[in-house]
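Our consortium's second objective concerns turning raw sequence data into structural hypotheses that experimental partners can test. To show how far this objective has progressed, the report includes one record in full. It was chosen at random from the queue rather than selected for favorable results. The single chain below, 189 residues long, was entered without modification.
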Amino acid sequence: MAKHTLIAMVENRPGVLNRVASLFRRRGFNIESIAVGHTEVAGLSRMTIVVDGSTVSVEQVRKQLDKLIDVVKVTDITEDSMVARELALVRIKATPTTRSEIIQIVDIFRANIVDVAADSVVVEVSGDEDKLESLLRLLKGFGISEVARTGRIAMTRGMAGPISVGEEKPSRKTASYRKKKGISDLSNL
């Protein structure tokens, strides 16, 4: 079993995230992370979903996801050359004697201290999962009191991504689909 990164372009509507997550749940997949945000196209959101599973079973779920009416397109970019990042906020216990050592470690990882209190500091770090895990291991000795992570966001390298603006939707979502959804110009998708 390996981690797979799926990218889904979905309509920005209530309940879409629930339907996508339910499809994975019904098939017994554990979602490692899921990150959703607006795209450059109004009305569409981009989901980055990381799941553990065999290539065959993940491909089967990808095909089933693509059949959901609110899903425009789903692509498995696991084997593609990609840029993947994650963001984390970490609250670390800090005393006047340990604060300077924490600052040095944070600087090495090109992270930022975004809040300082009498007994703690909050660090913001972004990068690949290995970078975040390495920083967390080093900061663990000071006492981590809270961690908030976004999960992976990713896109393929270069200009031709798996989901490009101006790309036509799959054939099952053609003229009747566009009419039903009020989509007149595919160049906006």
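The partners drew two points from this record. The helical segments are 16-26, 55-67, 99-108, 129-140, 175-181. The two ends are 34 Å apart (CA to CA). Both points have been shared with the crystallography group to help prioritize constructs.
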